[in-house]
Write a structure and sequence with these properties.
The complex is a heterodimer of chains A (89) and B (411). Chain A has 89 residues and is an alpha+beta fold. Chain A has one domain: TATA-Binding Protein, CATH 3.30.310. Chain A contains three helices and six strands. The longest helix of chain A has 12 residues, at 77-88. Chain B has two domains: 39-299, Type I PLP-dependent aspartate aminotransferase-like (Major domain) (Aspartate Aminotransferase, domain 2), CATH 3.40.640.10; 302-409, Aspartate Aminotransferase, domain 1, CATH 3.90.1150.10. The chains are: A alpha+beta (89), B alpha/beta (411). Chain A binds chain B through residues 14-18, 20, 22, 45, 47, 50-51, 53, 62, 64-66, 68, 70, and chain B through 19, 350-353, 356-357, 359-360, 367-370, 376, 382-383, 407-408, 410-411.
């Protein structure tokens, strides 16, 4: 079982009608997190690893090489945590 | 003309790199960076002069008091106020508007009265009035804006009436950078017997502002958007109005006397003189010292030169952003009525995607509603990305910004 605290520095709801959630990975773990997520999710499109559009199950999201990800259409934090646990395990 | 490359030497933070790229800071409408002179002034205050101000006889307190009062004078001179009596230090623009809403509005507004704001306002110029409306039953009315984001003066004038007691309008929109004709707004407000409150958060740091020329009753602005530290801001108010007002908060510093009457078993309280009547508690002295230094820095540059520099950058950026595939600019592009704030979007991407992509290249822009949700609703936008310039930004930075925008446009 992966501990999200090891990877996630902060999550923040975006300001705007979109109500997306941005996940910021810890600086020292961001490369590992990005690598794990890229290995698990399916790549739709990407610009040189800087921005990648990914899908994982019913979810679609964007991952940034700087160690941030933006998730859409999540109902609550539990759903986000479950998704992150799957992606990072 | 400003020499931005020389100015940049004063800003230590501009030397840092973000995500292996040189920092390009285009989020100045949120907060500005601080020059070494401001940082040094705050450090010097804490290293050499730190003490509580007023009502102490020791040397450090006298020095701190002199600095604190000089800061009021410096700020008063910057906006052409009559002196420190008209210059109340607060935490920022938000607190300044709340001060007027609570100290004036709560005591003077009643059912049937109206407060007129606009749909382009920052939440800090909407929420306090709505809160006071809830308490007093006065009604907040919203004047409309045109499709290009400019204020609809016809709507404004049509909504003015004998019931209007307060007009509270931003000088410059924090989303579009549009400069409102505040002189006209104030004139119409006064003709109808209303008070004119101006949110100067985005104007005082960027254009020359003269409270006498504008004839405003109140002007609110923040130190941190004009090279100063966070936690210090200003409420300018006409002396006669401030004198008639009751205090906003109670505590030390704002009273002349608190005397207990054993017969009546209560205290009789008299207020201090201006501006201290509105500055309850131990004030933010180091913030005031930092703000004083920031004002001196801007005075040396000259506010007209600041305006010219930002206009040059905006004129340079606008056609280049428009030229980027899938890019769209919101609001007017007429730089004669606009400050250095550009709201934009990239088709198919949320503003947060755009901001995160730019961040990857060390370019800082803001995304979201920018605390102006009603304006976004008028524009029918879920959010916007916003690039905003200041004295240390350069055309070379804009070139880099455009390069990266072109790259994201290909996504």
């Amino acid at each position: 079982m992966v501990s999200l605290e090891d990877y996630v520095a902060r999550t923040e709801g975006t300001c705007g009608k979109e109500q997306d959630i941005i996940v910021m990975f810890k600086f020292e773990k961001k490369d590992e997190a990005v690598k794990k997520i890229l290995a698990k999710a399916t790549m739709k499109k990407s610009i040189a690893g800087i921005i990648s559009e990914l899908t994982f199950g019913k979810y679609s999201f964007r991952l940034y090489g700087s160690g941030k990800a933006i998730f859409r259409d999540l109902q609550n934090k539990e759903e986000l945590n479950a998704l992150l646990s799957d992606l990072l395990s | 003309m400003l020499d931005a490359s020389k100015i940049r030497e004063d800003f230590p933070i501009l030397k840092r790199r973000v995500n292996d790229n040189p920092l390009i800071y285009f989020d100045n409408a949120a907060t500005s960076q601080k020059p070494r002179q401001v940082i040094d002034a705050i450090r010097d205050f804490y290293e050499n002069h730190n003490a509580g101000v007023h009502r102490a006889v020791h040397t450090l307190s006298q020095e701190a008091t002199e600095l604190y009062e000089s800061a009021h004078d410096e700020v008063a001179g910057f906006i052409n106020a009559n002196g420190m009596e008209e210059t109340v230090f607060v935490r920022g623009t938000t607190e300044a508007i709340n001060l007027v809403a609570y100290a004036w509005g709560l005591r003077n507004l009643k059912r049937g009265d109206e407060v007129l704001v606009s749909l382009m306002e920052h939440h800090s110029n909407i929420v306090p009035w709505e809160m006071i409306s809830g308490l007093t039953k006065a009604k907040v009315k919203y004047c409309e804006i045109h499709e290009d984001g400019t204020l609809n003066y016809e709507s404004f004038e049509n909504k003015m009436s004998a019931k209007t007691r307060v007009v509270s309008i931003s000088h410059v929109s924090n989303v579009t950078g549009i400069v409102n004709d505040v002189k006209r707004v104030v004139r119409v407000a006064h003709e109808n017997g209303a008070l004119a409150v101006i949110d100067g958060a985005q104007s005082v740091p960027h254009i020359p502002v003269d409270v006498k020329d504008l004839d405003v009753d109140f002007l609110a602005f923040s130190g941190h958007k004009m090279l100063g530290p966070t936690g210090i801001g200003v409420l300018y108010g006409k002396k006669d109005i401030l004198e008639r007002m009751e205090p906003f908060q109670g505590g030390g510093g704002m009273i002349r006397e608190v005397s207990f009457d054993p017969r009546k078993k209560m205290c009789s309280i008299s207020w201090n003189t201006l501006p201290w009547k509105f500055e309850a508690g131990t004030p933010n002295v180091s913030g005031a010292v930092g703000l004083m230094e920031a004002v001196r820095y801007l005075k040396r540059l000259g506010m007209r030169n600041v305006r010219i520099h930002e206009e040059m950058l905006t004129k340079y950026a606008l056609p280049r952003i428009k030229n980027v595939e899938k890019a769209r600019i919101f609001g007017t592009e007429d730089t004669s009525v606009k400050c250095g704030i550009i709201p934009f979007g990239i088709e198919g991407l949320s503003s947060h995607d755009v901001a995160l992509f730019l961040d990857n290249y060390g370019i800082m822009v803001r995304s979201g509603f920018h605390c102006a949700q009603p304006l976004h609703e008028v524009f029918k936008l879920s959010s916007t990305a916003r690039a905003s310039f200041y004295i240390y930004n350069t055309r070379e930075e804009i070139d880099r910004f455009i390069e990266v925008l072109k790259e994201i446009g290909r996504f």
